[in-house]
Each structure stands twice: as C-alpha cells, then as structure tokens.
Design a protein that fits this description.
By secondary structure, this protein is mainly α. The protein is 86% helix and 0% strand.
C-alpha cells in the first residue's frame, strides 16, 4: 500500500505550473485583443489616472544625472560635505532650482517673441495682399485693354479667404492656448503631483533600486538574477544616454539656428529656432520636418530669406549628423540607419511625434536584448562570427 501512495513530483509540478500560467496568460491576451476597442479605452483611463506618477518618474529619470553631478562633483569633492543625507537634499534642491529657473527664463523670453512673430506673420500676409491688389488695380488703369478682371477677382476672393483663415487661426489658437494654460486646473495639479513624485523618487532612489533587486533575486536564481541586473543596467544606460544626449544636441542646434538666423538677418528667428530645436529631437527626419514651417513662414517675407534658411538648415543637419551628434550621442543606440528609420516609422504610427522620438531608444533596447540572447545561443552551439560570414 505504501508503494502506491501519491508522492509529489517536483519536476512535473513545475511543468504543470508553467503550463497553467501560460494558459491563463494566453486567455487574457486573447480577450484583450478580441475586445481591442474596449482595451484601448481602459488603457487610456488607466494612463490618465497614473499620468502624474508616470510623468513624475520620467522627470526623476531626467533629473537624476544632474543630481548626481551636483552631488559628486560639487558637494562631495569641492565643498567636501560628508553627510550623504545633506548632500542629497542640497543636490535635489539645487537641481530643481536650476531647471525650473531655466524654464521660467525661457518662457518669459520665448513666449512673447513667438506671439510677436505670429502677429507679424499675419501683418505680413495682410501687407502682401494689399500690395498685390494695388498692383492689379494700377495695371488695369494703365493698361485698360488688358483683361485682368478675372485674375483680380480670383486673387481678391482667395486672398481674403487666406487672410480670414490666418486671422481666424490666430484669433482661435492663441486665446485657446492662453485659456488652456490658465483654466485647466487639473493639468496644473497633475504637474505639481508629478514634481512631488519625482522628488520622492530621487530621495528614495537607492531604496527603490534595492527593493527591485530584492524582488529579482527572490524570483530568480542568483546566477540568473546577476545577469538580469546587469542587462537592466545596460538597457537603462542605452535609453538614458539617448534621451539626455538628444536633448542636449537639440538644444545646441536650436541655439545655433537662432544665432545664425540673427547673423544672416532672417526674421522670426525665435519662433523658427524653437520649432527646429523641438523637431530635431526626432533623428534623421527632425531637421527637415522643422525646416518646412520655417520655409513657409519666411516665404511670406521674401523667397530669398526662405532659400537662405533652407541652406542654413541643410548645413546644420550635416554638422549635427557628421560631428555634433556623434560627439554627444556616440554609439548610444548601436542601431544601423535602417533600424532607426524603422523605429521612427513605427513609433510615429503608434504614438505620433512622441513615438517617433521614443521609438529609437525602445528599438535600441529591444535590439540589445535580442543580440544578447542570440549571442548566448550561438556560444552554446560553438558557432563563431567567422562561421556566419557570407563569402
């Protein structure tokens, strides 16, 4: 009787648990995909609720290098403050004062300039329209035999529509932006919460990282946990280096665009340089995306200005791609150009301009993980790179 007694088999028990978990995950995934519309709405609601915390985590992620720099280089080495707690508090405080101060200065300078530029664009369109109408009227008087009545009517009708559209856009967009920035209290509250969350994340950074490591080491074997920790650290390095490096790179390109536009005497330098700096965050296509509105804006002034600006953007793009970008970013992504274009295309399809920017580091991380797995499998099979070389 003892011979047929049921005994727990650890091997088959583990296999059964894996099968059960896989089955449950497959059912959940199938249900989510089958009801995709409902899934998207639910995800949107969840993201709206969690947005202050997600934004706070992202802010902390961006602020962390500056906090570490002030803590290590300034407070520890120069001022020789020994207390870790005091250094942490001062470095976080200084970091936020510096960043918020720069943002406040930029807003106070850039926003009025942008508003003034938009008003000048409208005035320029109105002036061009008046000049064209006067020219046609003068021509009809000097050359009564010329039949230009149809041309005059077309110009007046279409020009008035364009002016009404531009004026209506300015009258609608500018107050909308102003009213939105003032009246959307929930957005302001979410931003305050996000800043508070980022502060707590930076304060408890070491504790949070330690807790995450504990979870990894509890779930996995030590050898596997060591590899996972190292891999996550490498992924964080790839993602962080790209975002921070690209931000610095785009800021420099925006400043250089503003500087050279003023040297060359081009109008609307502040408005166009802000557009160029922001769009430059998108690799490869960013400078050209930013060049289109700049050229259109300058065409309202003089086609020569638009041509000079186009040449300037081409020169800046070459400088950024051949020198500045590699100096700042280096090989932070490790992606070939075709994969960067793929990341931009898919990211733009999924999440618009933000997806075009974040798609590159995300694909870089996926490529890094895939390469790590493939390299390990090839090593296990004793296959070297030379064996795979096509001759």
């Amino acid at each position: 009787m003892d011979k047929h007694k049921f005994e727990k088999n650890k091997k088959y028990y583990t296999i059964s648990m894996y099968v059960l978990i896989t089955f449950i995950v497959a059912i959940i995934a199938f249900k989510l995909i089958w009801n995709w519309g409902s899934t998207l709405r639910t995800m949107h609601k969840i993201l709206n609720v969690l947005s202050p915390f997600l934004i706070g985590i992202f802010i902390a992620y961006l602020m962390n290098p500056l906090v570490k720099l002030i803590d290590g280089k300034l407070l520890k080495k120069i001022f020789r403050i020994k207390s870790d707690r005091v250094r942490k508090f001062i470095s976080i405080l200084f970091s936020y004062v510096i960043v918020l101060g720069i943002i406040a200065i930029c807003i106070s300078i850039i926003v009025p300039e942008i508003y003034s530029s938009l008003k000048n664009i409208y005035d320029g369109v109105q002036g061009s329209y008046d000049k064209l109408v006067n020219f046609l009227d003068k021509t009809s008087k000097e050359h009564p035999n010329w039949d230009i009545e149809y041309i005059t009517s077309v110009v007046k009708d279409n020009s008035s529509k364009i002016i009404e559209f531009v004026q209506g856009s300015l009258d609608t967009i500018l107050p909308l932006l102003y009213n939105t920035s003032i009246s959307v209290i929930s957005w302001v509250i979410n931003l305050i919460i996000a800043i508070m969350v980022s502060c707590y994340m930076l304060i408890d950074k070491q504790r949070l990282l330690t807790n995450c490591k504990k979870v990894i080491y509890v779930i996995f074997k030590k050898s596997h946990a060591d590899k996972i920790s190292q891999t996550l650290s490498e992924c964080n390095k790839i993602f962080g280096n790209f975002i921070i490096g690209k931000t610095i790179d785009s800021t420099i390109i925006g400043f250089l665009c503003f500087l050279f536009m003023n040297i060359l005497g081009l109008k609307y330098s502040m408005l166009i340089s802000v557009i160029v700096g922001i769009t430059n965050m998108i690799p490869y296509f960013g400078p050209f995306i930013g060049a289109v509105p700049g050229v259109l804006i300058l065409l309202t002034v003089n086609w020569k200005y638009a041509l000079v600006f186009g040449v300037l953007i081409l020169a800046l793009q070459q400088f950024d791609g051949l020198y500045l970008g590699p100096k700042i970013l280096g090989e932070s992504t490790g992606l070939r150009p075709v994969w960067i274009i793929f990341a931009i295309t898919v990211g733009g399809w999924l999440a618009g301009p933000i997806g075009m920017f974040l798609g590159v580091p995300c694909v870089a991380v996926i490529a890094f993980l895939t390469d790590r797995v493939i390299s390990r499998k090839l090593t296990e099979k004793n296959i070297s790179d030379e064996d795979l070389t096509v001759k």
